[in-house]
Write a structure and sequence with these properties.
The chain has 283 residues and is mainly alpha-helical. The protein contains 14 helices and no strands. It is globular, with a radius of gyration of 18 Å.
Length: 283
């Protein structure tokens, strides 16, 4: 399918669904961390998702083509993926879903700013600048909301920011390196295979790998592996081949709004009036 110049109704609907999935995933990661060390859990997720990807390729009769041609950029992509989720899982182990999500989904700002200089046809228009300024103003306001700040953690917030910057780097890698020419299945193979090796090898350096996991933690791990890290990212990678990166990135601002609501409803996280006003700006 040819690349579109802007987002259409089908793409918007797909991105809203994906943003909802990612928002719920933040809660799932937080819960799953109760049974597994963050880095070990992230590594297991990549390993299980790799198995799901293999099954998907068999059922859908898809081949992992272009592996030799994308070796260098594929390893780079997988390494970035590993660092992103080492940071994100650790962030959610330290701070609240609300704060981590708002910082993590500042990714569109970094991506759009960089894309303005390095990606053809993705210049910043006055409308985009205004929208991003409002959204980032909401992010800053939310982070300084007293009840949220009291429940947060500075190191967790910093790790969420590192994760956001790495996510932006992944999106650029998918547009500017030879791996951009590969099929979504090949792109995801590199991310999952390389990240599984890196994170599982590093996991013992980050404390106990098991924290008395039970059924809910195993279910959370399975949900992430099947619906997020494999099928969900296949969907996102497909959209990246069709729509402008900045348009896709902008829809990511829906996820923190939804994640804050889920954190409040499912985990009892504090949400004050200032926080709600901040989310209105983000929306």
């Amino acid at each position: 399918m040819a690349r579109k110049q802007g987002m259409d109704a089908a793409g918007a609907a797909g991105m809203v669904a994906f943003a909802t999935l990612l928002a719920f995933n933040q809660v799932v990661i937080k819960v799953t961390n109760g049974g597994f060390g963050p880095v070990f859990g992230a590594g297991l997720r990549s390993l299980l998702a790799l198995a799901v990807l293999g099954l998907w390729c068999v059922v859908m009769r898809r081949r992992l083509t272009g592996l030799r041609d994308t070796l260098g950029s594929g390893i780079l992509l997988g390494s970035l993926f590993a660092f992103e989720f080492m940071c994100l899982f650790s962030s959610l182990d330290l701070t609240t879903v609300s704060r981590s999500s708002i910082i993590f989904y500042s990714m569109p700002v970094w991506l759009v700013l960089i894309a303005h200089f390095v990606l053809p046809g993705e210049t910043l228009s006055p409308r985009r600048v205004l929208g991003l300024a409002l959204a980032m103003g909401g992010v800053v306001l939310a982070l300084f909301e007293p009840r949220s700040a009291a429940a947060g953690n500075l190191w967790g917030d910093a790790l969420a920011l590192l994760s956001a910057l790495t996510w932006a780097a992944i999106a650029l890698t998918l547009r500017l390196t030879p791996v951009s020419q590969a099929a979504p299945e090949t792109q995801l193979f590199w991310q999952l295979s390389v990240s599984a090796v890196i994170m599982l090898a590093c996991a013992p350096l980050f404390g106990p790998m098991l924290r008395a996991p039970d059924a809910v933690h195993l279910a959370g791990l399975g949900f992430q592996a099947i619906f997020v890290a494999s099928l969900g990212f296949l969907f996102w990678l497909r959209l990246m081949t069709i729509y402008p990166a900045s348009d896709i990135a902008a829809f990511s601002f829906l996820s923190p709004v939804l994640a804050v609501g889920m954190g409040w409803a499912l985990l009892g996280e504090p949400v004050g009036p200032q926080f709600l006003f901040a989310l209105a700006l983000v929306a």
